[in-house]
Structures are given as structure tokens and as C-alpha cells.
User: Which sequence fits this backbone?
């Protein structure tokens, strides 16, 4: 049997993996150099022109090139630009269309005092890409060119490495107040150690995504030599979501870039931010993303790990960008009991086991709802948990009792209704009809019957509700919406569709009018979330075999049209 270490490829990958865990840049560079010494020409070149061999060789070459580029970045950090330019020029002869090599060549020439040659090389690659592919250089290359022309000495890769744990400091939960989620914590360790460079942590409102990430950040032993950053994107808050360009600016400030050194244009900001992220082994947490448009352009090709939390499932990032997904669901009964026990520890009040189980069901296993309920129970000392549960069982009291009255983030009505602002008219109608029937579980036929359309059309609507974590999919054609969510929908969208919602987030817009041009808001604006008012377009009907855009409403009363 062949020993694993006797195979050059295995040794190369082991050394490369060890390098990613090094806190000392010199030690990392030494390991990468040792790994690259094992490289001898093009892999599998002795197998002729077999298609399968070519496919494997391309993947192996990519591993080699990423290793060389990381070694170049380390050399640039040590002001050894001369080493980079000679090595990169040799590789460009074999890979002339690889823009990341050109980027490092131009940067190294400029840093080595050969600015005129660096600008000449930019014109060379610009012409090459135009002739060969008919495209312009990437945003990264264009941003580098502009910064060289402006003679700004603070170029990509020279931004100060962060030392703080977070760009925006966030409070962490006391150790005895965070319980459960052991599977999710282990999965995060696994994904961020060596499996993925982009991780999507999705789940419904109130399930504790942010609390989970904060707890994991405090306790993970994974090494991120260049630091950790945390940024709240405010994607679920109508009118407050950070545009991609502002996200890039905030990250650059966290790296120590002065406001005067941050480019004005969004594309230049994003290009500079990507370059910084790509060259560093660090963890960036982008919390509460609204959709993939808010984060996609910021994702680095190599380097550290980007962890994104969102109520949206961000399916495009998984399908097109290779992101790994970790979904966070409601607490299991044992985890819920453990949380209640931890919250009651200081009050030392006796509770009935049956009452605890009923509370878990009424709160739908949402940590936020449980924390609000227990806060009220501990505050009103003359009330037993059984009495609180009895009050919560009356839907007229349920949502009023699951709020603190002084904090919109501790208000179940507000938190669970925010996603409604991003729904299209027909999606909103379906969600209201599902909630009005008091069906925790339902199938595709039941949903189609409620809407008066065929299965294919209602499946399109359900997919959107599922992607926003408003409906759970339990199997093909089998779905669930928990009773607490139903109560919020009924409260937000009363039976009289022309009436305003009875309770709203003070920072949120009114619900969208059930009509208008589909897709007019989705994924394009982070400036506002104003409701649709174009009632004139509410006359479309669900046509057999129509696509998503044809699934308009024909219920004028429900659409709020005159």
C-alpha cells in the first residue's frame, strides 16, 4: 500500500492546510514555499489529451495558483515587491487571462518604484482582454489603476490589519443564558475550518441567529490570524438596510482606512474591499442580510471566511457562489426547557412542567418569544406560569403579552411581521388565507384551493414564502406555518383588507398595497421600502400555465383597490 505522505499531492495539500492555521506570516510563507517546491510541471501531463485528465489538471493547477498568489500577498506585506514581480511575470506567460496575477504584478511594480511600467502593464492587460474576450478589466483591476493614477500611497493590501473582534461591538449573552444549539455550533466550526469560504446561516425571525453567531464567536477556537469583523447590515429593518457600497465603506473603516482614502464610487469601494478581504485570513460576519444583492459583490475569491446571517435563504449564493448553508430552526423541546430553566435560575420560582411545555408550544420554540414571556413572568411575582400560559392561549392577549413595550427588537409582533414588507401581492394574500384557516400543516392541494389556482401556480407563491422563512417545507407538497406566525399575520392583515394593520413597527412602512408591478422593489433599493400605491395595475388574473409574474390577484377587495 502506498503511504499517503509519499504522494506529492497529499503533502502539498497538507502543507497548504497547515499554512492557513499559522498566525506568524513568516511561518506561513515557509510552509507555502515548501509546498510549491513539490510542484513539477503540469499535473497528469503524461496521460495525453484525455478529457478527464484535463478536467482534473485544471483543478490542481487552480490549487497551485491560489498558493502562489497567497505567497505573493505575504511578500507584498513584507515590502518584497521585487520577488513578486519576477514570479508573477513567469506565470502570466502560461495564464495570460488570469486577472488576479496581473493585479499582483501591477501592484508589485508600483510598490517597487516602477509606476510607469505598472501603468503600461495595465494597458497591456486591458487590450488583451478586449481582443481575446471583448470585456473590460475587472472592478479590482480598474480600482487599482485609478488609485495608482491618483498617486495614493495607501493601496489595496496596505490597509491596516484589524485587531478588534468586531467592526461594530455587540453585546454577548451571559454563558448561562445561551443554551442548546450544540449541533449548529459544531457545524459552524466544521464549515469555517476547512469546508467553505462563504457560509449562509438562515432561519426565521426570532430563532436566535445573531445570538448563535455571537456565542460562537466568543467560544470558537478556530484561528483567524488577521482578525474578526462583525457588521450589522440591518437588512430586515425597512428603510434601514445598508446599500452594498456603504457596507464596503464600513468594512474598510474597520480595517483602518480613513474616510479620505475610501473611494467615492460604489464599484471602487467594493473592489478595494474585495481586494483587502481576499488577501487576509480572517472572519467577516455580515449579520442580517436582506438578500443576495446586498452581499454578493463583496464576497472574496480566496482568503478568509464570510459568514452571512439572513431570514432570506439566499438560495442564489448557494447555487451560484458555492456558499454552504446552515439553517437554524426552532428550539427542540429539550432545548426549550433548558432555556427556560436558565432564565428562571436567578428568580428561583417554581414552575409546573406542563406549563413549561405549553409555553414552548405557544411561543413556537422561538428563543425570543420565550425570553419575553419569562421576563414578564419573573417581573409579575404574583402570577404563576400556568396563569401566564392561560392568558397566552387567548389570541386576543397573545401578541400583546409577547412584547416589552420599550424595545421594538423585543416585540414579537414587530419582529415576525417585518418580512411581510418584501412580499408580492399574491404572496401576501396566500399567507393571509393560510393563516385565517388555522392550519398548522397543509398540502399543496389545500393551498391551491384557497387561491383558486392550479398546483404549479401556488407552488411558485409558496416557494417565495419558504425562502423568506415564513412557511416551512416538510416534504414535497407538505408545508407548515406555526400558530404564532399565523397570529401575527392575522393581526397585521385583518380580515377587512382595506383597514390598516392594527399594530406596526414604528420604523416600518405600511404593508404594501396588494397590487403593482411585480419585482419593482425586490433586490434593487436599500434606500426605502415604501408601499406600492399603483392600484391601477391590480386587475391581472392568474392565468393557467402562467409564470410568477402572471400570478397577480383577481381579488380586488383583498388588493385594497377602490
Assistant:
Amino acid at each position: 500500500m502506498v503511504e499517503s505522505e509519499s504522494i506529492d499531492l497529499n503533502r502539498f495539500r497538507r502543507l497548504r492546510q497547515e499554512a492557513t492555521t499559522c498566525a506568524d506570516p513568516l511561518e506561513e510563507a515557509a510552509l507555502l514555499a515548501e509546498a510549491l517546491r513539490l510542484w513539477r510541471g503540469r499535473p497528469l501531463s503524461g496521460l495525453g489529451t484525455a478529457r478527464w485528465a484535463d478536467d482534473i489538471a485544471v483543478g490542481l493547477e487552480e490549487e497551485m495558483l491560489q498558493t502562489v498568489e497567497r505567497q505573493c500577498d505575504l511578500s507584498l506585506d513584507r515590502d518584497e515587491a521585487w520577488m513578486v514581480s519576477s514570479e508573477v511575470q513567469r506565470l502570466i506567460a502560461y495564464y495570460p487571462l488570469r486577472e488576479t496575477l496581473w493585479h499582483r504584478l501591477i501592484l508589485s511594480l508600483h510598490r517597487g518604484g516602477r509606476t510607469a511600467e505598472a501603468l503600461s502593464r495595465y494597458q497591456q492587460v486591458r487590450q488583451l482582454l478586449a481582443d481575446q474576450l471583448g470585456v473590460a478589466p475587472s472592478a479590482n483591476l480598474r480600482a487599482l489603476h485609478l488609485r495608482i493614477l491618483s498617486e495614493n500611497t495607501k493601496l489595496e493590501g496596505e490597509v491596516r490589519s484589524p485587531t478588534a473582534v468586531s467592526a461594530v461591538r455587540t453585546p454577548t449573552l451571559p454563558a448561562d443564558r445561551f443554551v442548546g444549539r450544540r449541533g449548529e455550533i459544531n457545524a459552524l466550526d466544521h464549515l469555517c475550518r476547512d469546508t467553505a469560504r462563504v457560509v449562509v446561516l438562515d432561519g426565521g425571525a426570532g430563532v436566535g441567529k445573531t445570538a448563535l453567531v455571537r456565542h460562537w464567536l466568543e467560544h470558537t477556537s478556530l484561528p483567524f490570524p488577521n482578525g474578526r469583523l462583525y457588521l450589522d447590515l440591518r437588512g430586515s429593518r425597512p428603510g434601514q438596510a445598508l446599500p452594498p457600497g456603504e457596507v464596503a465603506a464600513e468594512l474598510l473603516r474597520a480595517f483602518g482606512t480613513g474616510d479620505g482614502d475610501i473611494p467615492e464610487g460604489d464599484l471602487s469601494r467594493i473592489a478595494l474591499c474585495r481586494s483587502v478581504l481576499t488577501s487576509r485570513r480572517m472572519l467577516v460576519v455580515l449579520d442580517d442580510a436582506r438578500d443576495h444583492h446586498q452581499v454578493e459583490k463583496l464576497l472574496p475569491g480566496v482568503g478568509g471566511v464570510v459568514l452571512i446571517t439572513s431570514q432570506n435563504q439566499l438560495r442564489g449564493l448557494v447555487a451560484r457562489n458555492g456558499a454552504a448553508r446552515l439553517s437554524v430552526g426552532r428550539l427542540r423541546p429539550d432545548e426549550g426547557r433548558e432555556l427556560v430553566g436558565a432564565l428562571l435560575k436567578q428568580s428561583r420560582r417554581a414552575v409546573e412542567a406542563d406549563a413549561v411545555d405549553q409555553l414552548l408550544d405557544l411561543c413556537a420554540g422561538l428563543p425570543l418569544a420565550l425570553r419575553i414571556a419569562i421576563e414578564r413572568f419573573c417581573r409579575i411575582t404574583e402570577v404563576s406560569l400556568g396563569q401566564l400560559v392561560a392568558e397566552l392561549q387567548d389570541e386576543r392577549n397573545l401578541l400583546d403579552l409577547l412584547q416589552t413595550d420599550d424595545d421594538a427588537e423585543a416585540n414579537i409582533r414587530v419582529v415576525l411581521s417585518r418580512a411581510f414588507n418584501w412580499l408580492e401581492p399574491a404572496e401576501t394574500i396566500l399567507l393571509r388565507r393560510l393563516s385565517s384557516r388555522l392550519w398548522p400543516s397543509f398540502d399543496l392541494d389545500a393551498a391551491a384551493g384557497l387561491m383558486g389556482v392550479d398546483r404549479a401556480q401556488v407552488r411558485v407563491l409558496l416557494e417565495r414564502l419558504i425562502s423568506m422563512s415564513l412557511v416551512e417545507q416538510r416534504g414535497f407538497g407538505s408545508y407548515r406555518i406555526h400558530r404564532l406566525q399565523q397570529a401575527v399575520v392575522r393581526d397585521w392583515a385583518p380580515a377587512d383588507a382595506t383597514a390598516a394593520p392594527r399594530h406596526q413597527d414604528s420604523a416600518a412602512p405600511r404593508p404594501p398595497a396588494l397590487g403593482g408591478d411585480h419585482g419593482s422593489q425586490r433586490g434593487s433599493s436599500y434606500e426605502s421600502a415604501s408601499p406600492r400605491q399603483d392600484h391601477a395595475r391590480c386587475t391581472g388574473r392568474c392565468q393557467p400555465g402562467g409564470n410568477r409574474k402572471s400570478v397577480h390577484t383577481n381579488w380586488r377587495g383583498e388588493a385594497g383597490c377602490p
